[in-house]
Structures are given as structure tokens and as C-alpha cells.
Amino acid sequence: MEEQSKKLQTIYKIIMLVVLTAFITFLVTSIGIYKYLVASDKLIVLESSAKNSKLSTALESMKAIIDKYYLGEQDEEKLIEGALHGYVEALGDEYTEYITADEMQEYQEQIKGNYVGIGIYMTSNTKYDLIQVLTPIKESPAYEAGILPGDLIVSVDGVEYKASDMTVAANKIKGEEGSKVKLVILRDEKEIEFELTRRKVNTNPIGEEKLENNIGYLEVTSFDEGTGEEFKKKFEDLETQGITSLIIDLRNNGGGLVSEALEIADYIIEKDETLLITVDKNNNEEITKSKYAPIVNMPIIVLVNENTASASEILAGALKDAGKATIVGTKTYGKGVIQQIITLSDGSGLKVTIEEYFTPKRNKINKIGIEPDEIVELPEGVTSLFVTREQDSQLNKAIEILKNKQ
């Protein structure tokens, strides 16, 4: 009887091992994957290949050893999730990551332009192996508490996270409206603790103002759904107020939807002119051109800094190469690659780097950034998020240039 019971247990383990392997292979090669984060609307289908046999064999061996010898309890879902995280992380690409089904909801909320949280854009800092604040969103809890671009996140609610844990940390920072979260921030080699109350954050407000000498000012903080249309409406509003030149402030804009940045470029650049060049892993090149006649026909200054990244660099580079704007500020971040979020059949996802982009004149951006036409630093100790009009040497330089063009 005991021998028969052992045989049944062995058969059960073999069946579970086969199911586990099939499940992981299915996730990795899932069919019906939809791209929604970049400009294209292509449907991507991945097919299984013999290359997966090595991965499957390794997982089977690992599973068999754990089943036979491991003393503690096993959580199959956590094991699968951990295997997928590790597989993707081993690529060594700071922008490519596996996203759980729960975390995918946060991405969708951010793309729509609002979510509940503290309001920060983050990136991976590989030098310190920590998560870095790219920029807090204006009028958000993080902004009001004094969190700054460049701050490094050491822990969230007492749990320490590394650069590779960014998605997990982001999910922990998010929570119910009105609840609190504690962050330990590393700044200038000193740790600072913040306790923040989560609330709904609008991620895509565009600041609008009419400045002296009929100069219009639009501050674009990110590129989310509807940003292009909002830009158009606010420009037209300034136009009715009699503006004759325009400042577009992209400082601390960490990027977002490429399609929205290209829509704004299309409002400014002549029809049929190149806006963006992308190249994929097979060296296939795609050229995006403007579709319409421009509606913005006046001198333009674009303000940038070291936190101007990704889609912001696409817009700044297109306007610079087309001779439609003077770039003022400091060199941009240098994120010249585009990610695509792929939704898997179980609701989880994969954010994967698929293309490198170049400006219309084929200038490389990745790890290089865009050099301004006029390099202007802010005064020492002053950041662009917390700067008075008198201190803002970059904005004041832009105003000076536009005055001279009148």
C-alpha cells in the first residue's frame, strides 16, 4: 500500500512538472500580443520555437530538484513569477521588464493620465543600483512634500528595493486614496524620510501662461492620452490673446506616448517633413512624416534639461532639426530607445525595448542626449521644479531671445 502511494505521488509530481513547464512556455510564447504604448498599432504574434527546449529542460530539472529535496512550502505562482522576472532581468536592459497582471493596471491608468499615488516618474539608476526619481509631477503629494529629481529611493514602507525592482516598488507606492506610504530617499549621501498621503494625480496637465511682450508659455509635463489635443487647445487659447512667439517647456518631462509627442510636432513642422526615424533589431527602418500643414507659425523656444527624456527628446530633436525652434537649457537625458508593452494571455505583460530612434537628421540620442543651441545652467542650488521667475535663468534667456526676434 505504501509503495503504491509513493508511485502515485511520483506520477502526480511528473504531471505537475509537465503542467508547470507547459504553462511557463505558454506565457513566454503567448499568442495574440497587443502593442499599445508606441505610435504603431501593429498586432504582434510570437510563435514557439525549438530554442525554448533548453529553457524548458532547465526549469524541469530545477522543479524536480525542489520537489524532491526542498524542505519548506512551495508557492507555484510565486515560483513562476520569479522565473519570468529573472529571465527578463538577465537581458541587462534597464528598460525591459516583466509586469504582473496586477501591475499592468497601473500602467494603463498612467497612460490614461490619472491614477492614485504620490506622483513621481521613476527610472533605474544602475550606478547606485537604486530607483531614481526622474521628476515629481507638479501639484502631486511628492511635489508638495519636496521630493526632487535625482532623489534615490532606498525603501518603501521599510522594504528596500534595487534598480531592478522598479515595477514592484511602483506597485507598492501606489495604493488606496487617503492611505499613507513612507519613503526613505537618498539625497547628497543623506537619507531623508517622507510620509506621503496618496491621492488622485493628474499626470498630464499643460501649464499655460501669457508672458511679457506677447510671449506664450506652455509647460508640457508628460505625454499621456490627450496631451496633443490639450496642447492644441491651449495654444489656440493663447493665440486669441495675441501671442506672437511661444516657449514650450519640456524640462523634467520624462516622456510617455510617442504618438502624442509626434502629434505636437505635426502642429509645428511642415507637411511631409520627417519627424522621427526608428530602427529595429533587424535594421528595418521606419520614417514618420508630418501629415498636416502647421498651425503654429511663430518663433519657438524649447526649454530642456537633464531630465528631459524619451518622447520629449523626440519632440525637441524634431523641432531642432527642422529649424522650427531654438533649444535652450542643458543637455537632455539621452533615452533614445522605445519600449512596447505586450499584454500576455493571463493579463501580465512584458515591457520590452524594440527600437532605437534618431532625429530627422539621423542624430543618435541614446546615451548621448540633445545638445541645446543655447546652453544655460540654473543658478547653483536651484532646481527647475522649485525656481522663482527671477532665478529661472533658462526661462529668462528664452524670453530674451524671443524679444530680440520681434
Write structural notes for this entry.
This protein has three domains: 2-95; 114-201, Pdz3 Domain, CATH 2.30.42.10; 204-405, Alpha-Beta Complex (2-enoyl-CoA Hydratase, Chain A, domain 1). It has ten helices and 21 strands. The chain has helices spanning 2-28, 52-69, 76-89, 101-112, 141-145, 166-173, 227-240, 258-266, 311-321, 393-405, and strands at 33-34, 43-44, 97-99, 114-117, 120-125, 130-136, 152-156, 159-160, 180-187, 190-197, 199-202, 206-211, 215-220, 245-249, 274-280, 285-289, 300-304, 326-329, 337-343, 349-358, 374-375. Strands 5, 6, 7, 8, 9 and 10 form a six-stranded antiparallel beta sheet that branches. Strands 12-13-14-17-18-21 form a six-stranded mixed beta sheet, sandwiched between helices. Strands 3, 15, 16, 19 and 20 form a five-stranded antiparallel beta sheet that branches. The protein is globular and about 80 Å long.
Radius of gyration based on Cα positions: 24 Å
> How many distinct beta strands?
21
Shape: globular
Query: Helical element count?
Result: 10
Total domain modules: 3
Poorly predicted runs are 1-50
How large is the share of residues in beta strands?
25-35%
Can you identify the CATH class of the largest domain?
Alpha Beta
Question: If you average the pLDDT, what whole number results?
Answer: 85
Task: Note the main sheet.
Answer: 6 strands, antiparallel
Helix content percent band:
25-40%
Looking at the structure, the CATH topology of the largest domain is 2-enoyl-CoA Hydratase, Chain A, domain 1
Find the CATH superfamily of the largest domain. 2-enoyl-CoA Hydratase, Chain A, domain 1
